[in-house]
Amino acid sequence: MQFKRIKILMLILFFLLDIFLLNWWRSGEVSQERVTDANTDIISEMKKQKIKLPQFGTSVHYSSYIAAQYGDRREMPLPAGLDIFTGNNTNTVFAKFKRDLFKKNNTGSDESILATYSVGYRFNPVLTANKTNFDRVYSQRIEGLPVIAESGIMTFQYNKSGKPVGFTKRQLVNIERLRDDRATITEEEAIIALYRYNEIDRGDSLSKGYLSYDRTLTVNGYDIFLPVWAFEAYSGSEKYVLKINAFTGDNLSE
């Protein structure tokens, strides 16, 4: 008899637990709908203020914190065809292309030749757009994301004729993932955060956002990097890079 009562009590508890979980799930769905509606309202408000927005994404990405150290320029492998200039900074390669590297009878194009020197790096449209000259910036790729900190980029210098003349290069080494991947905010949420922090205003333009790695602090000889959403913003004749913490939504713009 006692066993029957315990069995009935357990069934009731399981039934109540199912109801609780169902209601909790539904409340979460409603909350998400409200968030989506609120985001839509803010985006509409931004468009009314003539803020030019990119075709932004709403997908959730996953990333983690990483730690890395500065690479020594003396240990960076470099193809032939360069004049290397030494300096006090052992973390940076200063290189000029030899004059005969881009001869007209060369079968390779400028882009294909540059690809030889930028292995492990990829063109970064945000950092390049922020330049006031003809330079082009390439970012080292770590865990599938571009690095936007100075310690992980290389910059190709161009002359007024549009020909590459040399580059500076920095590289991150001894890279370690510090924790498992976790969800980041969406590109849409990053744009809304910029608006709430008054980083973009009436008539401004915003580039497409790129999930990137940026340096946050240094611990025991390692730089710690976290994922950020990086944008190029235009306000009249001014342009600047804007950054949002991809985990917390905090403003990291300088």
Compose a concise summary of this entry.
The protein is an alpha+beta fold and 254 residues long.
Describe the structure.
The chain is of the alpha+beta class. It is built from 4 helices and 15 strands. It has helices at 2-48, 110-117, 125-129, 187-196, and strands at 62-63, 66-70, 82-85, 93-97, 121-123, 136-142, 145-146, 153-158, 164-169, 172-177, 182-183, 205-206, 210-219, 222-235, 238-245.
What descriptive keywords fit this protein?
32% strand; six-stranded antiparallel sheet; 254 residues; seven-stranded antiparallel sheet; alpha+beta; globular
DSSP summary, beta strand count: 15
Largest sheet: 7 strands, antiparallel
Query: Which H/E pattern describes the elements?
Result: HEEEEHEHEEEEEEHEEEE
Principal-axis shape: globular
What topology does this entry show?
Elements: H1 2-48, E1 62-63, E2 66-70, E3 82-85, E4 93-97, H2 110-117, E5 121-123, H3 125-129, E6 136-142, E7 145-146, E8 153-158, E9 164-169, E10 172-177, E11 182-183, H4 187-196, E12 205-206, E13 210-219, E14 222-235, E15 238-245
Antiparallel strand pairs: 1-11, 2-10, 2-14, 3-4, 4-9, 5-6, 6-7, 6-8, 8-9, 12-14, 13-14, 14-15
